[in-house]
Design brief:
CATH class of one domain in chain A: Alpha Beta
Helix content of chain A: 25-40%
Largest sheet of chain A: 5 strands, mixed
Strand content of chain A: 5-15%
Strand order of the largest sheet of chain A: 5-4-3-6-7
Strand content of chain B: 15-25%
Radius of gyration of chain B: 25 Å
Helix content of chain B: 25-40%
Number of strands of chain A: 7
Structural class of chain B: alpha/beta
Mean pLDDT of chain B: 86
Oligomer: heterodimer
Strand order of the largest sheet of chain B: 6-5-4-7-8
Number of helices of chain A: 5
Radius of gyration of chain A: 26 Å
CATH topology of one domain in chain A: Nucleotidyltransferase, domain 5
Structural class of chain A: alpha/beta
Mean pLDDT of chain A: 87
Shape of chain A: elongated
Distance between the termini of chain A: 86 Å
Distance between the termini of chain B: 67 Å
Shape of chain B: elongated
Low-confidence stretches of chain A: none
Low-confidence stretches of chain B: none
Number of strands of chain B: 9
Order of helices and strands of chain B: HHEEEEHEEHEHEE
Largest sheet of chain B: 5 strands, mixed
Chain lengths: 194, 154
């Protein structure tokens, strides 16, 4: 009985496959959609004229200039970003205790204003500190870590448990409003330094 | 003597014919989980780092804008530019781009569009704020500033 001999050398098939693999590895990118999530306010014209006067106490002002220096509540900020996060948390959760700080979390607004000349890097750095304050508050309210909270917030519909934690963390009321909304107002930059 | 006869023979017992199969499986895995980079990014992209990252679930609802100084300064100048798909656009053309991208989506999903801004670290806020204003007018208010995880943090 003649032994069947392979006509095509199988060895090169593996080589071709490796080549194709390397080609795809080099030309494609794994989609990486991560970052700081922000909701923009409605367009400038659509907004009703701001007749509502926001009491100074309910406003936490953070300003960054073209030299990437910070002004927090009107004073030059000399602390660390961690300290800034702590200040913001204290502001949001004041609940009327300090008369110069916010009434309640619902009305507390963090106003973040930059110059046109502020670097994106600094903008992100401070935005990170602000969001950390909110995410820490939400996470503490439902007894999870900051990291876990962000996971929940990224996909609240993943499970009923996630949905529940997400709602409780932000204090969702029956009418749909939140006890602790992320009232972050990213103001139009001042004209300096474009 | 017959006991030792078999030891002398060295035979390749492992069939290598399935190796290409394994490699093709790996290949298909990569083909499925990655996307072809269809445009080259023509601006500087030193992406900032942060800790409060959130990820987006629906990749199809995310559209990218790349902002930064052009890579080829001789050709495009030093001023920061906005790249949408594979062309540079002006801030005022952002609304048009948003509507274009929205039209590629299902009617019911159009208001869930998220715009991901991939901005170079050293870009100034001016041009970015202009883009934000235009996005507000275009009713694309869900924004993501692309950032990488700060190394060394949890």
């Amino acid at each position: 009985m003649p032994r069947p001999t392979p006509d095509i050398p199988n060895a090169s098939m593996a080589d071709i496959a490796f080549l194709l693999l390397v080609f795809f590895l080099v030309t494609t990118t794994v989609a990486n959609i991560k970052g700081l999530s922000v909701g923009l306010p409605p367009p400038p014209e659509a907004q009703e004229i701001q007749d509502i006067q926001i009491p100074e106490r309910n406003l936490f002002k953070i300003q960054v200039n073209s030299f990437d220096n910070l002004l927090v509540e009107g004073e030059p900020w000399t602390g660390t970003n961690e300290e800034l996060t702590a200040e913001i948390k204290r502001f949001i959760l004041n609940n009327g205790v300090d008369p110069t700080s916010s009434d309640n979390p619902r009305d507390a607004i963090v106003s973040y204003k930059t110059d046109r000349g502020t670097s994106h890097r600094k903008f992100i750095e401070i935005l990170d500190a602000i969001q950390e304050a909110y995410y820490d508050i939400y996470a503490e309210r439902v007894g999870v870590t900051n990291e876990k909270w962000r996971e929940i917030a990224s996909d609240p519909e993943k499970s009923p448990e996630f949905r529940d934690l997400y709602d409780r963390g932000r204090g969702r009321l029956p009418d749909g409003k939140l006890e602790i909304p992320m009232n972050l107002s990213i103001a139009e930059p001042t004209q300096v330094g474009s | 003597m017959s006991k030792f006869k078999k030891k002398a023979k060295v035979k390749q017992d492992i069939p290598t014919s399935s190796m290409p199969d394994v490699v093709f499986m790996l290949l298909f895995f990569f083909m499925v989980t990655t996307q072809m980079r269809d445009t080259s990014i023509m601006v500087q992209q030193r992406i900032p780092q942060a800790t409060q990252l959130r990820s987006l679930q629906r990749k199809t609802l995310v559209k990218y804008l790349y902002i930064g100084e052009p890579r080829k300064i001789e050709e495009w100048g030093k001023e920061p530019k906005i790249q949408a798909n594979d062309v540079f656009i002006q801030p005022r053309e952002v609304i048009q781009w948003v509507n274009q991208e929205k039209s590629t989506l299902d009617e019911s999903e159009r208001d869930q569009i998220t715009v991901a801004l991939k901005v170079d670290n050293e870009t100034k806020r001016g041009i970015i704020a202009d883009v934000e204003t235009e996005l507000r007018k275009a009713n694309a208010r869900k924004l993501l500033y692309s950032t990488n995880l700060k190394s060394g943090e949890f």
